[in-house]
């Protein structure tokens, strides 16, 4: 894994996802969607303490008034954070594959190993 700009790895993963979808490769599509979701989840900002936003509209409880008023900010991840998320996703799949191998589920193990390979290949 080489350090690059924050957008480098996610862009490569999205490009690989488009290719996998065009090729109708269900395993690659699933793996790439999963890792992109993990990155998106890491970008999410925690809600403010005290629960959801209150008050801006008399007709709907908890709603806010104005265009974009309910939009939440996103964190900007560093290239190292993105690389760590991707590495964790690959490691999780390899560990799960080892568990499936130990319990005699070779088909599931091979799928997880293929997902790990797809993610590593798309990362660059």
Helix and strand content put the structural class at mainly alpha
**Rounded to an integer, what's the Rg over CA atoms?**
19 Å
Approximate strand percentage: under 5%
**Strand elements, count:** 0
SSE map:
Blueprint: H1 8-22, H2 26-43, H3 79-102, H4 106-123
Features:
single chain, 124 residues, mainly alpha, Hypothetical Protein Yqey, Chain: A, domain1, 60% helix, disordered N terminus
Task: Please give a structural write-up.
This protein is mostly helical. It has a single domain (8-45, 73-123), classed as Hypothetical Protein Yqey, Chain: A, domain1. It is 60% helix and 0% strand. The chain contains four helices and no strands. The N and C termini lie close together (8 Å). Residues 1-6 have low confidence and may be disordered.
